[in-house]
Design goal:
CATH class of the largest domain: Alpha Beta
Number of strands: 14
Bound molecules: flavin-adenine dinucleotide
CATH topology of the largest domain: Uridine Diphospho-n-acetylenolpyruvylglucosamine Reductase, domain 3
Number of domains: 2
Length: 247
């Protein structure tokens, strides 16, 4: 199947991207970043944006800024950037360990960290990382800049607090003191990941602050945690892969 017809826009400046979104979001305008999630669903006509605002030519959005072990990740930072440690210490090690779980290399060359958060697939790695590390998401629109804590940003499977005319321009991650990541067998719809910053060293403390991804359906009316929600106990996983620790 082919995508439904749409008009393509390719702004070169962030101001132009924001202006286009303000104008086009009310008429089914949508951001295109790496296209690795959006284009397939357009091909199946599960999404039919009338306008695509391609941000790939916007200067400066691919920036990664590391300060004091923390990191700001620009909207066009591709997954593959994280194969190398982009920041010293446990955060860089954690990101480099996690990225290898995402799809395969050609997809990692194109897909973006921020696009993954905006798409909010429950099984996506970066959402779980960002929620576990108490990350902050930065969005801009014609109304100005808005910062959202990850726990407020993720509202459910493929549901976020991002407004249609907002452009995600970055994500800020705090450095964990210790972290742990694990994933269920690929194909397992309850893929689980847990990462936790804690003042203590040792994986047995990782459940202190952790997040769970996956597609476990919630019973109607149940108050179970949405994707990325913090848990106070370790997530259950069927046959998880060996944990990767990035101390
Ligand atoms: C075969 C395959 C396997 C995959 N496996 C995995 C996997 O194992 N783990 C995993 O985590 N992901 C996986 N993915 C998804 C991949 O990581 C995508 O790159 C990611 O989900 C979306 O990033 P993107 O930059 O491609 O966003 P796009 O596809 O361009 O956009 C996705 C959505 O986010 C919105 N969006 C994107 N950027 C912004 C922004 N800056 N501001 C506002 N809205 C924005 C778009 O409007 C769209 O709604 C897989 C994809 C494929 C095709």
């Amino acid at each position: 199947m082919k995508p439904a017809p749409f008009t393509y826009h390719r702004p070169a400046r962030i101001e132009d991207a924001v202006r286009l979104l303000a104008e086009l979001a009310p008429v089914e305008g949508r951001v295109l970043a790496g296209g690795q999630s959006l284009v397939p669903i357009m091909a199946f006509r599960l999404a039919r944006p009338a306008h695509l605002v391609d941000i790939n030519a916007v200067a400066g959005l691919d920036r990664l800024e590391a300060r004091g072990g923390a990191l700001r990740i620009g909207a066009l930072a591709r997954h593959a950037r994280f194969h190398r440690r982009v920041v010293d210490g446990p955060l860089g090690a954690l990101l480099a360990a996690v990225v290898r779980h995402i799809a395969h290399y050609p997809i990692r060359l194109r897909g973006t960290f921020c696009g993954s958060l905006a798409h909010a697939d429950p099984a996506a790695e970066w959402g779980v990382v960002t929620a576990s590390l108490d990350g902050e998401l930065v969005a801009v629109s014609a109304r100005g800049e808005r910062r959202l804590a990850a726990r407020d940003f993720f509202q459910g499977a493929v549901e976020t607090a991002l407004l249609p005319d907002e452009l995600r321009v970055g994500a800020n991650g705090k450095p964990p003191l210790h972290s742990r990541f694990q994933k269920g067998h690929s194909g397992n719809p309850e893929g689980v990941a847990a990462i936790a910053p804690t003042a203590r060293s040792g994986c047995r403390h990782c459940s202190k602050r952790s997040s769970t991804g996956g597609r476990r359906p919630r019973a109607a009316g149940s108050a179970g945690p949405p994707r990325g929600a913090r848990r106070s106990s370790p997530p259950s996983s069927t046959n998880p892969s060996p944990a990767i620790c990035a101390p």
